């Protein structure tokens, strides 16, 4: 328990760990944030405090007062406010990298504009439609800029350890993968961007992008078909949006007779949750020689558990692993540099590992993990196929006519 509290404390109050000071020579990368977004403190501002090569330099918000209050609260030097503030931030020559945590439906427009302005971009998940994603990476490539979809959980050693166990053959061939992510009702409010169809909301976009990504990552494959997909609409007195999937259940066929299911829910009814399942963020892989379950694959820093059961005849042997930093992990032929084992601390959030990789890429170093263009595009293709199969259609694409040169 004490290490749980210590991890959470250090993750949220990185001032408590040995500090570094930026010097005139250190020339940190100046980041600008588009929007005074709820997620930015956890996903970038706090992780940046322990990265010696990063400074969160500016924030833009549609309302100046909101931008000012946000900047004050998080110690951000420069503020842009008002209806033209996002573009003004992009035009700031001091800024080298832009974090785009806008609603999903605005990712395409503002990432394209950021790339046009010559900025590297860390764009929140789910990145955009598959076709838009292609255009975003084409432009990034053309401009020689870094673009990364913030699929943060993939940068953490816990999921990489799970992948290494599966790839090692210890459990034999994969038969099925079941990935779930959901929140109890009330966590997401009716007016949240996640329940707004025009802003490309829905649980498959918000949570399904993780579960699908996890299925694709652990199986090292893309689905071959969507066998079934059922969307549950949001039943709310305030929202009559039938195209918003409060919840989605989909079954996917994968190569080699692997079957996967994903389950997402932005408002799980309280009565349906037995206490043991109250953390509804897990992936379970059944193999010919045993099973593996990772509980809390998305935010493993706080707490997670990797349970591995191997079968030998009628004997089942079970062990539990926890992997908070790379030094804890056995990654045979693991990805990235040979100094992987030195990377990270047990309190590093997935976002801190992700920031390390983003900066490494930007500096021309070799990141420990990367989410490739192909990975981002394939994930969105299958999100769209799930929506089509469920009969509620893919999310609307942006009306923004991008300059692509
Ligand atoms: N990586 C992760 O773990 C997480 C990722 N996310 C992703 O981050 C993104 C933002 O999520 P979250 O921080 O919860 O979102 P917020 O509700 O905080 O919205 C983000 C910003 O969007 C801006 N915005 C611009 N136009 C609109 C509009 N028409 N309606 C509403 N907001 C608008 C607002 O900017 P302004 O301040 O200028 O008004 C707001 O600050 C999403 O893509 C989500 O999927 C979210 C949570 C976790
Ligand atoms: O990690 C997350 O948890 C909460 C979700 O609603 C959010 O969008 C997601 O990225």
TrEMBL record:
Domain Gfo/Idh/MocA-like oxidoreductase N-terminal, residue spans: 29-147
InterPro entries tied to this protein: Gfo/Idh/MocA-like_OxRdtase_N (IPR000683), Gfo/Idh/MocA_domain (IPR050984), GFO_IDH_MocA-like_dom (IPR055170), NAD(P)-bd_dom_sf (IPR036291)
Keywords: Oxidoreductase
Source taxonomy: Eukaryota, Fungi, Dikarya, Basidiomycota, Agaricomycotina
Lineage top rank: taxon: Eukaryota
EC number annotated for this UniProt entry: 1.1.1.179
Gene3D superfamilies in alphabetical order: Dihydrodipicolinate Reductase, domain 2, NAD(P)-binding Rossmann-like Domain
Molecular function GO terms recorded: D-xylose 1-dehydrogenase (NADP+) activity; nucleotide binding
UniProt domain GFO/IDH/MocA-like oxidoreductase: residue ranges: 159-289
Name this polypeptide is given: D-xylose 1-dehydrogenase (NADP(+), D-xylono-1,5-lactone-forming)
Organism: Collybiopsis confluens
First-tier enzyme category under EC: oxidoreductase
Family the UniProt entry places it in: Belongs to the Gfo/Idh/MocA family.
Reaction(s) catalysed by this chain's protein: D-xylose + NADP(+) = D-xylono-1,5-lactone + NADPH + H(+)
Signal peptide feature range: none
């Amino acid at each position: 328990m004490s290490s749980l509290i210590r991890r959470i404390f250090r993750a949220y109050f990185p001032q408590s760990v040995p500090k570094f000071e930026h010097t005139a020579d250190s020339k940190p990368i100046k980041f600008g944030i588009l929007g005074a977004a709820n997620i930015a403190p956890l996903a970038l501002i706090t992780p940046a405090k322990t990265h010696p090569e990063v400074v969160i330099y500016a924030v833009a918000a549609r309302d100046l007062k909101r931008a000012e209050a946000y900047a004050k609260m998080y110690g951000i030097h420069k503020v842009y406010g008002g209806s033209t503030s996002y573009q003004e931030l992009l035009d700031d020559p001091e800024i080298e990298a832009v974090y785009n945590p806008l609603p999903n439906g605005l990712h395409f427009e503002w990432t394209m504009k950021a790339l046009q302005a010559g900025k590297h971009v860390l764009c929140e998940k789910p990145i955009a439609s598959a076709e838009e994603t292609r255009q975003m990476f084409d432009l990034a490539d053309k401009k020689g800029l870094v673009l990364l979809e913030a699929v943060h959980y993939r940068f953490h050693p816990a999921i990489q350890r799970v992948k290494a166990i599966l790839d090692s053959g210890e459990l034999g061939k994969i038969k099925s993968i079941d990935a779930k992510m959901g929140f109890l009702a009330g966590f997401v409010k009716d007016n949240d961007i996640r329940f707004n169809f025009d802003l490309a909301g829905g649980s498959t976009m918000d949570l399904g992008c993780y579960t699908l990504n996890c299925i694709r990552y652990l199986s090292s494959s893309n689905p071959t078909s969507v066998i079934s997909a059922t969307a549950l609409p949001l039943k709310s007195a305030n929202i009559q949006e039938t195209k918003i999937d409060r919840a989605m259940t989909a079954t996917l066929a994968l190569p080699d007779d692997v079957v996967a299911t994903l389950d997402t829910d932005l408002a799980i009814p309280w009565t349906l949750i037995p206490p043991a399942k109250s953390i509804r963020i897990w992936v379970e892989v059944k193999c010919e020689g045993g099973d593996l379950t990772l509980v809390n694959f998305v935010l493993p820093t706080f707490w997670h558990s990797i349970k591995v059961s191997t079968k030998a005849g009628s004997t089942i042997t079970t062990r539990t692993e926890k992997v908070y930093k790379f030094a804890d992990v056995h990654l045979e032929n693991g990805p990235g540099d040979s100094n992987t084992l030195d990377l990270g601390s047990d309190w590093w959030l997935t976002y801190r590992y992700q920031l390390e990789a983003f900066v490494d890429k930007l500096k021309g170093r070799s990141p420990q993990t990367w989410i490739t263009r192909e990975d981002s595009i394939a994930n969105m293709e299958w999100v769209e196929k799930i929506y089509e199969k469920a009969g509620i259609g893919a999310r609307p694409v942006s009306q923004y006519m991008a300059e692509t040169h």
